[in-house]
Amino acid sequence: MKTLIVEDDFISRNLLLKYLQNFGQCDMATDGHEALAAFIAALDNNEPYDLICLDINIPEITGDAVLSHIRSAEESRGIHGLNGTKVVMTTGLSDKDSILGAFRSGCEAYLLKPISRGKFLEQLSKLGFSEIR
User: Fold this and answer.
1) Does residue 114 have a cis bond before it (omega within 30 degrees)?
2) Strand, helix or coil at 16?
3) pLDDT of residue 57
4) Which residues pair with 6 in a beta bridge?
5) How does pLDDT run along the chain (133 residues), one tens digit per residue?
6) Three-state helix/strand/coil letters over 30-70
7) What's the pLDDT score for residue 85?
8) Across-strand partners of 27?
9) Which residues are within 8 A (CB) of 112 and not within 5 positions of it... i.e. 6 or more apart?
């Protein structure tokens, strides 16, 4: 499994990396521009990400906007629905507008910080991901 962690907070970024280390390759981005550059490069190299963990409050471009760009890039390449990258929004925002906005933008899951390992792994399992043994 190939994952992109998009998180500007050092502690949150490393926590997600720790949770994901047994799943496969993990790349990291600290802002929206880095995230989009990594995502497009992966698509262009025919090595797309299986999973993106995306914080809503990141510098340069918000997570919601990044997600919209991701879905547009997939659509322009003929990638639709379940064939796209799975996106888990990771955020401290618990208001209804943030949650609904994320799902409208095309995320598959929404996890509130602080994210427990158990809840995170449960969500990955629901999305069809399992650890490499």
Assistant:
1) yes
2) helix
3) 93
4) 29, 54
5) 999 999 999 999 999 999 999 999 999 999 999 999 999 999 999 999 999 999 999 999 999 999 999 999 999 999 988 899 999 999 998 999 999 999 998 999 999 999 999 999 999 999 999 887 6
6) CCHHHHHHHHHHHHHCCCCCCEEEEECCCCCCCHHHHHHHH
7) 97
8) 4
9) 91, 92, 93, 94
Find the radius of gyration of the CA atoms of the chain.
Answer: 13
- Residue carrying the six token digits 């992109």: 4
SS (H, E, C) 67-92: HHHHHHHHHHCCCCHHHCCEEEEEEC
**pTM for this entry:** 0.95
Residue 111: which of 2, 15, 38 has the closest Cα?
A: 15
Six-digit token string for 83 = 């064939």
Find, among 123, 42, 131, 104, the residue nearest to 79 by Cα. 42
- What token pair was written down for 126? 């629901």
